[in-house]
Design a protein that fits this description.
The protein is of the alpha+beta class. It contains 19 helices and 18 strands. 47% of the residues are buried.
Length: 539
């Protein structure tokens, strides 16, 4: 069963190994876990529902609790402490687009605020009930989880928007196809949520981000149904798909998603190499990217992340042997790990690997083969579970990310990390490390993780997170970065959106939202922080 107060299935656990715990205690000091609340105590806090009865809506306490928060660190702290503050008044689970249409019309008649809900994996406050005097309905698309059609000739598949990653790939694989969109949240996140948040998958170098996959679909808006046709290309004005990509539930509820799929590849392998230092490593991965080699993924860990991942992996003797071997080959304490994927027919994979080896040798790098690559592949979707392993020892972990042009990558990474260190509070001890996870000819994403000891209360821990988050976000926009490359804006990132969009851009977005949702009943406060908050049941 899925956890009510954390990530994923309760049967899955990713414990912190002894070597990893010792590593963190050395850097951060011993920590004391905070006390977790029980579900029964939270159920007593849920107020009576303000919604009229409806056959598609559940109003029991546990259902409302399970749909009240996402997976950001503030959400985690709220769930663990039991201090949720707000709950939806009910949760609807429609089975098709027509039922979504009917629910939106009903919500307008009743003066109800509606929050679209996919897999509940948001780390930016997308699905949290806003402060509102109006009743709040969470509209879960969980029952809309099927492959609805497959056009083999055009290679376009149509899915219900609530289909989670594993079911997307399983249903396509049975037909000999795949989508290839693998965000870290893949286990739980949904195809509609990927479109709504402009998601990026781990193998985007081969398959593209969700905007390259999204071919069209159906959106139920307060103004009516929007059908987006699947046209290969068009010069007939602005692309309607671009209005919906990244719209985060503000303009309508995505109910059907049409995506471009590909046949299953003949061969796939993930490999790991090391470069002597950061400057060498970043020059190498930039060269590989700008050469447009047909890699399916490429990831560069800075020296601190490299040390951390090797330490958390356990297997101390094997890791010790690896360190000694790499040191003899010129990759010492400052070495940086490069993970890359090769996908396609066997001849293409062999040829591409040869091209990578040639460039690695020229840069003084060392290829160590598939063993570590297989370890990465096996654990690629397990990392979110590590939050549980850290928490039970008294540590909190969070991430933030951006994307910048190549000329700004190193400076932005260092500024972001330093902003976290400078605002860590308490004794100032925080463990920070970074990787580049999505690389483009123009620039790269930057993904930073930070671990810190919990304070002696939930309130103090949240306050420290807020200080670090604000400082990191300020550093991002100061270095020309987007406030989000792959997590979306939600409510947490909304204050920084204007730095990217500017006055004209923000005005256009407000007008667009206002057209589709003139009463601002769809996810108010998400994406646009200054959007009008509907505070009553009547206009």
């Amino acid at each position: 069963m899925r956890r009510w107060n954390g990530w994923g299935d309760s049967a899955n656990h990713y414990p912190l190994k002894a070597s990893g715990l010792a590593f963190l205690q050395e850097r951060l000091g011993a920590a004391t876990p905070l006390t977790d609340a029980e579900l029964a105590s939270v159920e007593k806090q849920v107020p009576p529902s303000r919604l009229p009865a409806h056959p598609l809506i559940k109003t029991d306490h546990e259902t409302r609790i399970r749909h009240a928060r996402g997976q950001s660190l503030p959400d985690w702290l709220a769930m663990r402490s039991g201090d949720f503050k707000r709950f939806p008044d009910g949760v609807a689970t429609p089975e098709n687009s027509d039922q979504v249409r009917a629910l939106l019309d009903w919500a307008a008649e009743q003066g109800v605020v509606v929050i679209p809900y996919g897999g509940g994996t948001s780390v930016a406050g997308h699905i949290n009930p806003p402060p509102s005097d109006a009743p709040v309905l969470t509209l879960s698309l969980a029952a809309m989880d099927q492959l609805l059609a497959l056009d083999r000739e055009s290679q376009i598949a149509t899915f219900g928007a609530g289909t989670p990653g594993p079911q997307v790939e399983a249903q396509l694989r049975a037909q000999g196809y795949m989508l290839g969109h693998f965000p870290q949240s893949w286990e739980l996140s949904t195809i509609g949520g990927w479109v709504a948040s402009r998601s990026s998958g781990q193998q985007s170098m081969r398959y593209g981000r969700i905007e390259q996959m999204f071919a069209g679909g159906r959106v139920e808006t307060p103004q009516g149904t929007l059908n987006i046709p699947t046209i290969p290309a068009s010069s007939a004005g602005p692309d309607l798909r671009e209005m919906i990509l990244g719209s985060e539930g503000r303009m309508g509820v995505i109910t059907e998603v049409k995506v471009r799929v590909t046949p299953l590849p003949e061969s796939e392998t993930f490999q790991v190499a090391f470069a002597p230092d950061w400057d060498t490593a970043i020059a190498l991965v930039r060269e590989l990217t700008q050469a447009k080699l047909p890699l399916s993924m490429l990831r560069l860990s800075n020296a601190e992340e490299t040390r951390t991942h090797l330490m958390l992996a356990g297997h101390e003797k094997m890791v010790g042997m690896l360190h000694r071997y790499l040191s003899l080959r010129g990759c010492g304490d400052d070495k940086c790990m490069i993970t890359f994927g090769l996908t396609g027919d066997k001849s293409l994979v062999r040829h591409t690997l040869g091209m990578v080896k040639k460039r690695l040798r020229a840069a003084g790098g060392v290829l160590v083969g598939t063993l570590l690559g297989k370890k990465w592949e096996e654990s690629r979707f397990r990392s979110p579970y590590l939050r549980h392993g850290l928490w039970e020892h008294g540590y909190a972990v969070d991430t933030f990310e951006t994307a910048v042009d190549w000329k700004n990558v190193t400076a932005a990474m260092r500024a972001m990390e330093q902003a976290v260190r400078d605002n860590a509070g308490d004794d100032g001890r925080v463990h920070v490390f970074t990787h580049l996870s999505h690389l483009y000819p123009q620039g790269s994403s930057i993904y930073t993780t930070y671990v810190f000891r919990c304070s002696d209360s939930y309130e103090a821990t949240l306050a420290r997170w807020q200080a670090m988050k604000r400082a990191a976000s300020d550093a991002i926009v100061a270095h020309g970065g987007t406030i989000s490359h792959q997590h979306g804006v939600g409510r947490d990132h909304a204050p920084w959106l204007q730095h990217e969009k500017g006055e004209q851009g923000m005005g256009a977005l407000r007008q667009l939202v206002g057209y589709f949702d003139p009463q601002h009943r769809l996810n108010p406060g998400c994406l646009l922080e200054d959007a009008p908050q509907h505070q009553s049941g009547t206009e």
